[in-house]
Structures are given as C-alpha cells and as structure tokens.
Design a protein that fits this description.
- With about 230 residues, this protein is an alpha+beta fold.
- It is built from one helix and 14 strands; from the N terminus they run αββββββββββββββ.
- The longest helix is centred in the first third of the chain and has 40 residues, at about 10-45.
- The N and C termini lie far apart (about 135 Å).
Amino acid sequence: HDEKAISQQELDQIETQKKVSDLEYERAEETVNRAKAALSEARVYHGYTRVTAPFSGVITEKRIERGSMAVPGSPLLTIEDTSSYQIVVNVDERFSGHINKGMPALILIDSLGLEIKGTISEVVPSVDPMSRTFIVKIDIKAPQLKSGLYGKVRIPTGKRETMIIPLRAVVEKGQLTGVYAVNREGIISFRPIRIGKTLGDNIEVLSGLNPGERIVTDGISRVIDGGVIR
C-alpha cells in the first residue's frame, strides 16, 4: 500500500478479513476452554464410580443393589475396621473417681476363650440416674474379635497383698481343700486351706498357709501324707 502496489479498498478488505480471523480464533479458544472444562467435569463424575474406604476393613452390610441409584447422603455399605475394637462397659457408680483414662483392664470373652489386655480410652463422668452406672470405653486388639461380642471386664481399682499358689497344687479330699506342705525335715503333711479367686493358672490362698512355707506343686498323684521328700 505504501508502494502503491494495492489500493486502499484492497487494504481495507485484508484488514477486515484479519479482524474476522481474530474473532474466529477467539471463538475457537473459547470452544477449547469449554471442552477442557467439560473434560474436567467428566473426570470428576468418573471418579464417583470408584468408592474408596478411609480405612482397611471388612464389609459387614450392603445397603444398595446393582442398578440402584446412589443418592447423596444415603449409605452404600457398612465397613468394620478390624485393626482395633472398643468395648463399652457400664460401671457401678461407687467406682466413680477410681477409674481414669489410661488405666489397664483385662477383658474376658468366654465365647472365644480369650483374655485380652486393654487400655481405658474414655470415662464418661455423668451417671445414669436409672441404672446408677457410668460408661467406660476400653480399646482392645485381637484378630479373633468381632463387633457385638459380649465380654467381662476386670479393672484394677486398688492394690492389696495376697498369697498366690499354682492351681495344680490344690488337693481335694472329701469336703476339704488343701495342699501338701513340706517342713524343714522334708516331711509331707496335708494342710487344709481356704481359697479365694482363681487367677489364670493360679489361685488365691486366704488362710492355712504362711509366706515362705514350701508346698508340693508337681507329682501330686504320687504324694502321700507323712511321706518324705528326698
């Protein structure tokens, strides 16, 4: 145009074509951006097709069937975390103030034949006015556990000294319960005793023995009253 090679009309036509091309380019960019947004949205919806649990566990209940509509807020599955469990106990109010978070506890589950050590994780301070009990929660772990099991809980609320002997050393003679005691000369004599609580493979002796006395714990079937240990 500066060299008079094209006319003003031709220059105006070329500039008009350039403006049209710029507008078409902008529209194409908008189309690309809308396509990217649609792709992102599709990826989000595609992510909803995979449900991931927040922890590893076992599905214990299925609340939806194939073909059913998954509605927001409606549960699909119930999953149980098998890595740890909690047992909830109603404790008599007289123990209020004696049981604290962090204390140990022993849980007995008769149906599984288990004795599990646990730790108190929560103590609810309020007392139920109807049952006169308060709630204690205890954390426990064991591979055999399942939700809904019934257990008995032993919580130590104090300390006392007691005499413990092996359960296998106890002898029943008629209505008498006793042990075979051994004196300094090695002579065996049957000693009646009064027993208390059974603690695993041991049993508590309430009376009949003194600390330091010797008793027979093995070979009870071969022991006779008045015999001598050599």
